Amino acid sequence: MASYHSEASSASSRRTSASPIPHRMGPMEYQPTVLCRCRAKAARWISWSRDNSGRRYYKWPTSSFIRDLLNDLHDAVWSLRREKDELFVAVREGQAMARDVDTARRELAALKKHVVETNAKLVLLKEQNRRLEKDRCMLFFVLLAICGLFVMVWVMN
């Protein structure tokens, strides 16, 4: 044990500079306990990464179950976001198709109206054709009668 202490003291004497980040922000700085959502005390950590060097943050202790659960939830959230995006695209396509169907329905209604109008004109033309055919037959018989009279008058003379 004495050898360990002497090694530690000699190691500390060899160090030329202090820690780049002090353990306390100010002298004997006190901060109240921070609790996470599960009411456990969150540990205060110091970041040693290049981007956030010296930044203090809180982290609550996690078990492997909680880590797995959080990873599963993270995956589920991303899956739902992708599904939401796909549904958003499908809704946009559906709305475009609905507009196309609505346009086609309006065109169909206009064509049906045109067919009804054309059929009404066709009925009128058929009726007029029937009357003209009847008049033609009458005219033929009248003409035949007149010719017959001329023939009788000519034969008698």
Explain this structure.
Keywords: Coiled coil, Membrane, Transmembrane, Transmembrane helix. Residues 1-25 are annotated as: Disordered. Residues 101-135 form a coiled coil. The chain crosses the membrane at residues 137-156. It comes from Oryza barthii. It is a single chain. The radius of gyration is 51 Å and the shape is rod-shaped. The chain has two domains: 30-61, no CATH class; 63-157. Residues 1-13 have low confidence and may be disordered. It starts with a helix and ends with a helix. It has a two-stranded antiparallel ribbon. The protein contains two helices and two strands; from the N terminus they run H-E-E-H. With 157 residues, the protein is mainly α. The chain has helices at 2-14, 64-156; strands at 43-46, 56-59.
Layout of helices and strands:
Blueprint: H1 2-14, E1 43-46, E2 56-59, H2 64-156
Antiparallel strand pairs: 1-2
Key phrases:
single chain; 157 residues; mainly alpha; two-stranded antiparallel ribbon; 2 helices; disordered N terminus; transmembrane helix; transmembrane; Zinc finger GRF-type domain-containing protein; membrane; coiled coil
In short:
The protein has 157 residues and is mostly helical. Helix content is 68%, strand content 5%. It has two helices and two strands; from the N terminus they run H-E-E-H.
Mean pLDDT across every amino acid position = 83
Overall radius of gyration: 51 Å
**How would you sum up the global shape?**
rod-shaped
Order of helices and strands: HEEH
- Order of strands in the sheet with most strands: 1-2
- The fraction of residues assigned to DSSP E strands is 5-15%
Major sheet attributes: 2 strands, antiparallel
Count of DSSP helices?
2
Helix content: 55-70%
Q: Give the beta-strand count.
A: 2
Unreliable stretches (pLDDT < 50, length at least 5) are: 1-13
**Helices and strands: which structural class?**
mainly alpha
Distance between the termini: 168 Å
Count of individual domains: 2
Protein name: Zinc finger GRF-type domain-containing protein
Organism: Oryza barthii
Keywords: Coiled coil, Membrane, Transmembrane, Transmembrane helix
